[in-house]
Structure formats: structure tokens, C-alpha cells
Design goal:
Distance between the termini: 57 Å
Strand order of the largest sheet: 2-1-3-4-5
Order of helices and strands: HHHHEHEHEHEEHHHHHHH
Number of domains: 3
Radius of gyration: 22 Å
Shape: globular
Structural class: alpha/beta
Oligomer: single chain
Helix content: 55-70%
Number of strands: 5
CATH architecture of the largest domain: 3-Layer(aba) Sandwich
Length: 344
């Protein structure tokens, strides 16, 4: 390829072309674009953030509005991961900083954002141990004792994983390793990260690189800030989760007769939705933050509307869970706040 024909991140239509390639499962084409951009002098960090990262945001949006299936979204993500691997193979940076362990908390499967962070930190001179998705807490701590990193970067994309994130952060701090947190699960602006004991929070890979490049580690915070989370209401919801879900589905069938015509796939999807209601309620109770639950209701309502599910189905689902929690005022108030949103 001649110098004149090399690609640039500013080329019109480039981002749509890349999105189309990963959407069609064209690994060769996606990797070719990455290589052309690097050949043209594009900074690898910019390719990660402005091309691959931006495309993944769009992939999530297309799934949410029901234009892409889960299978297509997963296939596209796999191609993005291959494109990122191709970029990594082209960039050899000798470590000049410390050692960082990067992992998704237990139960968190969205690994590509952490994979992008791993490459961004490697390009900035860190020695990186990338542990990937769904890392159980004991396994993470065992790794820390074996390798002795300077910092742990933990990702939590879904708020239902916050109790496990808290357990992981607490264990890391007990091992003497500071933690930087990231991911939407920690709330707007990372508002729950410090509450759970993290030393810092970053909105994305670029911010994490900047935070770790200066004034690290930060001053230790008061451990009492995160020592006591969860209460009797949270404990009740978690311990009775199967019963809450099963009873809600039974009552939903009586209150929403259309369910009697559902096929097995629709029934499975409804059961999954009911589980999400209970799990997000538990997360909201854990950190005493109603917004966790109301944000979930708003997002779920939008997704269900895109799939042709009427609002009444979600409202009845909330009511059936609330009816089982009448003796728990905080849980009841959160469910009421969610139902209020559906009436707007």
C-alpha cells in the first residue's frame, strides 16, 4: 500500500465501515483497517479508543434497540477483540513503570473494556497481568500474593456485581494492594467506588492511564467508610431470591393473562427479567442508593419497548415483587419509585 493511500482516523465513513465489518464477522477486514491505520501513523492509543472502543459503544446501542441480536453482538465483540490483539502484536513497549493486575470482578463477563485498558497501560509502560472476565475473589487474591503488583484495576459494568466488587476491593486492600475501579456498575462518576473502598475511579482507559501515571498510590482512606454495607433488608432479599422470583412469576401469570400464550423462549426471558428486578433491588439496598434501581427500571423499560413488550408487563412485575416485601420499607420505597417512573 502506498503512503498516499494509507488510512486515517479522520477518513469519512471509516467508523461505519469498521462497524459493518465487525457486524458481519469479517475479522480479516477489521484487522486490515487497524493495520492500515498504524501504517499511516495513527497512535495505537487512538485506534483503541476512537475506533475499537467507539464501535463497541455502538454495538451495545444496536443491541439495546433490538437491531442486533445477542449472537451478533457477541460475534462483533469477538472480532473487536481480534482487532485489538492484532494491534498489540504490532506494538512492543518495554515496561518502565510498575506492575498492574487487571480483572473483571466475580460474575462480570464484559471483558473487552478491561482488555482495552490492559493494552493502554502496556503502551504507557506498565507490566500488565490481564486476568480477564469473571475472576473469583480467592483466585484474584492468590494471584496477588504470587505476583505482588503495585496496583489492581477492577472492572464492574453492572451494578448487581457491586457486593462482589466490594468483597474483592476489601480483600485487595487487606493484601496491601491499592485499587483503581472502573466501569458503569460503580455509578455516575464512580460514586459508589469510594464507598466500596476503592482508592480511585476512572471513567475509561484514558483516564485510568492518567490517574496511574501521577500521584499513585493515593492516600489511604478511612476503612470505616466501606466497612458496613448491606442490612437486614438486603440480607432478606438475597437469601429469599429464588422464592421472590418464583412467586413473582406465578402472580405475574395471574395478573397478566397474556403470559399464558408465551412460548418457552418468552417464558425464559420473563424469568430472567424478574431475576434482574430482584438483583438490582438487592444492589440498591446494599449501597443504599435508589438510583441503582430506578436507572435499571428506566433502561429495562426502553429495552422492552424496543422488543414490543408493553409497559404493563414491567409494572406488574414490580408490583408482584413489592407485594412480597411489604414488611421492608426501604425495598418497598425503591419499588414504588420504579413504578412511579413507568407512570410518567
Amino acid at each position: 500500500m502506498s503512503v498516499a493511500s494509507r488510512r486515517s482516523l479522520d477518513d469519512p465513513g471509516l467508523h461505519d465501515e469498521f462497524l459493518d465489518l465487525i457486524g458481519q464477522g469479517d475479522e480479516y477486514g477489521a484487522v486490515e483497517i487497524v493495520n492500515e491505520l498504524l501504517d499511516g501513523g495513527a497512535a495505537p492509543q487512538r485506534v483503541i479508543v476512537d475506533l475499537i472502543g467507539a464501535a463497541q459503544i455502538r454495538v451495545g446501542e444496536l443491541w439495546a434497540v433490538n437491531e442486533w441480536t445477542v449472537a451478533r453482538e457477541h460475534a462483533a465483540t469477538a472480532i473487536s477483540d481480534r482487532a485489538l490483539a492484532a494491534l498489540a502484536a504490532r506494538t512492543n513497549v518495554r515496561p518502565t513503570r510498575g506492575r498492574v493486575t487487571i480483572a473483571c470482578v466475580d460474575g462480570e463477563w464484559h471483558a473487552l473494556p478491561t482488555r482495552m485498558l490492559a493494552e493502554m497501560l502496556r503502551l504507557d509502560g506498565w507490566r500488565v497481568d490481564f486476568l480477564g472476565a469473571n475472576v473469583p475473589g480467592p483466585h484474584l487474591i492468590s494471584h496477588l500474593h504470587q505476583t505482588g503488583p503495585d496496583v489492581v484495576a477492577l472492572s464492574c459494568m453492572i451494578a448487581t456485581r457491586l457486593p462482589r466488587a466490594h468483597a474483592a476491593i476489601t480483600a485487595c486492600k487487606a493484601a496491601g494492594i491499592p485499587v483503581i475501579a472502573g466501569g458503569r456498575g460503580f455509578g455516575p462518576g464512580g460514586r459508589y467506588a469510594q464507598h466500596l473502598g476503592a482508592d480511585a475511579w476512572a471513567a475509561g482507559a484514558e483516564e485510568a492511564v492518567r490517574r496511574l501515571a501521577r500521584n499513585w498510590p493515593p492516600h489511604n482512606q478511612d476503612p470505616q467508610l466501606s466497612a458496613f454495607l448491606g442490612d437486614d433488608e438486603y440480607t432478606y432479599v438475597v437469601r429469599h431470591r429464588p422464592q421472590l422470583i418464583d412467586t413473582a412469576i406465578q402472580r405475574l401469570t395471574d395478573a397478566y393473562p397474556a403470559m399464558r400464550t408465551y412460548n418457552q423462549r418468552q417464558l425464559d426471558s420473563t424469568a430472567e427479567d424478574m431475576a434482574h428486578i430482584v438483583d438490582f433491588l438487592a444492589a440498591a439496598l446494599y449501597v443504599s442508593e435508589t438510583a441503582i434501581f430506578t436507572d435499571f427500571v428506566t433502561w429495562t423499560h426502553q429495552v422492552l419497548q424496543a422488543r414490543g413488550v408493553p409497559t404493563v408487563a414491567l409494572r406488574v412485575g414490580l408490583e408482584t415483587v413489592q407485594a412480597q416485601l411489604r414488611d421492608y420499607p426501604r425495598a418497598t420505597a425503591m419499588l414504588t419509585a420504579g413504578m412511579r417512573l413507568l407512570n410518567q
